[in-house]
Amino acid sequence: MTDRPHPHAVSVPAVFKAEPEDFVVQELEAPPRRPREGEEAEAPSAPDHLWLWVEKRDFTTPEAARRIARALGLPASAASWAGMKDRRAVTQQWISVPGIEHDWQSVELEGIRIERAKTAVGKLRPGQLAGNRFAIVLREVPEDAVAGLSARLDQLSAGMPNYFGDQRFGRDNLDVARRWIVDGGKAPRDRFQRKMVVSALQSEGFNQVLAERVRRGTMAVAMVGDRMKREDTGGLFLVDDAVEAQARVDRWEISPTGPLFGKKMPKVEGAVRTLEEAFQTSLGLTPEALRRMGKLGRGTRRPLRVRLDQASLETPAPGQVRLKFGLPAGSYATEVLRALFGDGAQAATEGPSRQTETLALDTASQ
Is 86 a catalytic residue? Predict the structure, then answer.
């Protein structure tokens, strides 16, 4: 994986996830879709799914969903969710199941609690959330580092690189992707794995382009040929007037985007295109390779930067720091920790030796 530089990062030692309660995540539900101008609103349909507001402790989202489905007498695969949440954490999110007559109040599962439910039309789909709020406690933090951490948090709140985190890549998804997509080898049998390896390769390409723009100081600079994303609607457009676009970038009305390479990816022009095509070539993403990705990797654009929402830093006890902030869907809390602590933050693991693992091995923030 490519290096992911952060402009303000300084290495500060810290341990997070010493206990699941040290990493609290609350999912933010996506607002109802509004009809576009001139589009007629669809007639309401009868609810056919039950959405369950679930708190889980020390479980992955798929495992919690499977246990809930089985407890309701449904196949393990019947449950769905909008975003993956951390395992070693206390998290709250919606999980949906088909049918609306389930006796969810009687479900008793260790480490999993259904707090409330509502009926809805359709199941939850990946990405169907507005974002997440985090409350993260880091331990063993040097007391003389707190002032610097607070200052850097203020800087990040004004905008930070929107990298994909380590958990996007799994253990060997990039290697599998290169053997199949780039070299033309055998594709994984399982569709979910094919999707994961395509996603890993696209994410690597995005991170490489973003890292280069961070190095050049152009992450938040509008250039002719850039493709911008509107912060309010998500619409994309090409920049032909860099001065006018820069004023809008500075007001956070729009943000430059980077590539998730694929056959249908909206293109950029000029110097931006030259930059992106160089990384596409270095990754071996020829037209034939893009064809192998098929519908699993159509291609799209992702904002190069992200803002923290209502970020704060507290010191609940000597040697401890509690961070609170919100992120939009698809952005990674572990990248916030990387931006603040550099390579100093370590995730604690269970075991007699209290060894540590590298940052974000099991941390999902989508």
Answer: yes
